[in-house]
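Researcher: Structure prediction, please.
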Amino acid sequence: MLKRGEAEVFRITGARQGLADDVRGRQRRYVISMSVRTVSVILAAALWDVERYVAVVALALGILLPYIAVVIANAGRENAPSLPSAYVTAAPLPPMIAPAGAEAAAENERFENLKKTSDQS
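Model: Predicted structure follows.
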């Protein structure tokens, strides 16, 4: 529990990457994959009569890369860190209720003390 006037303290190392940085990184990955796709399609056209197997692999790469690039670009933001590591907690409080054995022993001791005082009177 927080005392009055104390604010919850968060660690900055547990914060997510900023939204602008996340979008910029996804755009960069998409442009790189589309550049690889363009090179592979040009390579497939250039090697079609020279090396047919390499041209077919390059063409397959050129066909599959747009789908993979879109899926990766739209994957979303990274997962948020788990809550226990994102904030600093206060020191643990001692238990408010005594263990069952201690309570029974204290009750027996009070009973014995009352019995002794009543016997003395």
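Model: The radius of gyration is 35 Å.
Researcher: Thanks, that helps.
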